Amino acid sequence: MEFMEQYKREFINFMIESNVLKFGRFTLKSGRISPFFMNAGAYVTGSQLSRLGEYYAKAIHENFGDDFDVLFGPAYKGIPLSTATVIAYSRLYGKEIRYCSNRKEAKDHGETGILLGSSLKDGDKVVIIEDVTTSGKSIEETFPILKAQGNVEIKGLMVSLNRMERGKDESGTKSALDEITELYGFPAKAIVTMAEVVEELHNKPCDAAGGKIIIDDKIKEEIDLYYDTYGVKN
Fold this sequence. Notes:
Strand content: 15-25%
Distance between the termini: 18 Å
Structural class: alpha/beta
Radius of gyration: 18 Å
Strand order of the largest sheet: 5-4-3-6-7-8
Number of strands: 10
Helix content: 25-40%
């Protein structure tokens, strides 16, 4: 078993405590019936957003380092994610990262244009931040927006949870995050993977749930069966 960083263990428990990661029977947008579901919209309080920003900042720092200028959060969920994370990044690492998000519709008065927060200029190095990516559809929309602003370099994408499901490739050998890397040429990473969640929670009392076992043998079996069908083939 590989060493798992402490912030990852804390983040897994934080998702349970915040009622963001649930186990049961859920119908996804894709029509798949999943034994787990993640709803980042359940992060609603000041302390939750503060902690969430810290976990993202730690994962970005570990995976991409400090050599970037802008954190871009696609509307709408990416707006609070990007703002919380640049605040945390400044506090943890002493580096000022600008935040930027897009509007769903361009504004024609006041602060005009399609962007919120910082503008983008030639030479800017950008990290994209999202909650979870299952199909890569949002990157299809985000990539041209970023490239239309100037000659920017995208350093990578950070999501909170890698569901580890196969993407669009019918061979089933690549995850959605792997497909993004192959298609756009930048790394796509997650704070934690679903495999790490299972490793941390399977048959172990979870303090964030009052000492209850969140993933027992039955739920573990359902997760394994789900990945037999929808997981990435090795």
